[in-house]
Amino acid sequence: MKIVCLDLEGVLVPEIWIAFSEASGIPELKRTTRDEPDYDKLMRWRIGILKEHGLGLKEIQDTIEKIDPLPGAREFLDELRSLTQVILISDTFTQFATPLMRKLGWPTIFCNSLEVAENGEITGFKMRIENSKLTTVKALQSIGYETIASGDSYNDLGMIQASKAGFLFKSTEQIKADHPELPAFETYEELMAAIRAALD
Q1: Catalytic: which of 7, 15, 91, 152?
Q2: Which of 9, 15, 91, 156 is catalytic?
Q3: 7 part of the active site
Q4: Which residue range forms the structural domain that includes residue 183?
């Protein structure tokens, strides 16, 4: 039994925080897990910036409503789901992901949750489990699945390296240079061909 585990942002949809950085005019919020390997540190820093500017969940959700999947992402995902089981494993939050899941045809997603005050201020976040991507892949393997994984950022490396087959997708030059052993692809056609070969 094989199962495909995909990252969400940067792989199927644009980076939410980059889109919100552009919408809000706050350039610091462009920083993502492609730049900062420590997700906990990154999120605490983001929450501090939101508080400083008086921005909350509603403003981010308004931006997310305008985000569309990357060109070809929905078709790629539909084709992949016709071949095998697929789970999106993301460090994003349920409050951010839901509108995007609608646009992607409601795939299964494992992600985290935000702590939000009554006034809409984001006060914290609750990670589903530590090292969620790697831990989830190992859990799937423990119940008899062979995993095939793909992502673009530092926080995807664990699940990619632990899987039967793992691929970088639309990653940074730095991550590709640091991990020349990982096949790296730029198009859904290339990624689909690699996943199909791994499924055989």
Answers
A1: 7
A2: 9
A3: yes
A4: 2-13+70-112+128-199
